[in-house]
Amino acid sequence: MNTKRKTTEALIMNAAMDAFSSGDFEKATMRSIAEKAKVPTSSIYKYFKNKDDLYVTLVSIIVDRTNRELSMHLTGISSVKNKLKEMAGFHLNYFQNNVHIAHLVFASTNLSYWYEYEKAYDKVKESGSALARLIKDGQRSQEIRDDLNLRVINHIYFGTLRAMVINWLYRQHVYQLADLAEPFADALYGAIRPREQAPAQFVCPFVKNAKIVKKTARKTIS
Question: What percent of the chain has pLDDT over 70?
């Protein structure tokens, strides 16, 4: 790819980021993005098939980068509980420090969008790969229950993450999003760790003896 092509593509991507993250995805047009990038509208179609392709390409770059960074953050952490805390902290800190990306990923499109486009859906699955590896590793080490449905856990984690970020966005960032990381991770870990075996039922010897005495008394009377 020559320098001019790289420059033009970068201009388009930056303009698209601004258009998608500052407003409604549906209202953004290729013409308005071209105007922001100061390139002819026809130039955008040399790089992207349509607005959907441009959006998914932009988000794909973000997902790939965050997955690499998350992998580095998790390196050297052994326990599943601590990995969950690190993962939750990483995601919430990332979106807190990159509000425009938080809006781009969670607020500019409806959730259904991610399931309507194959390329977008593939990125959704990739974003959950680190969590799936964490769960599987925990099951092998018996730190995590072995009867879990990975799809359900994935929905719980990313569904809750999405809800927390959207609530934070619409409440105008009045609190620290990252402060929710530890309680979020603790709640999830509490749901997926092995169930504790129920203690044997305690029978009070006095109650037991009282029943015997009562039964004997009834026999004596009869």
Answer: 82
Distance CA 75, CA 190 (A): 23
Residue 107: DSSP 8-state = I
* pLDDT tens digits, one per residue of 125-180: 777 888 999 999 999 999 999 999 998 999 899 999 999 999 999 999 999 999 99
- What span, in angstroms and rounded, lies between the C-alpha atoms of 213 and 221? 12
Q: Are 77 and 86 in contact (CB under 8 A)?
A: yes
CB 144 within 8 A of CB 192: yes
- CATH number at 176 reads 1.10.357.10
Instruction: Pick the closest to residue 63 from 17, 105, 110 (CA basis).
Output: 105
Confidence of residue 213 (pLDDT cuts 50, 70, 90): very low
Q: What's the domain count of the chain?
A: 1
DSSP state for residue 143 in the 8-state scheme = S
Rounded distance between C-alpha atoms, residue 132 and residue 211, angstroms: 54
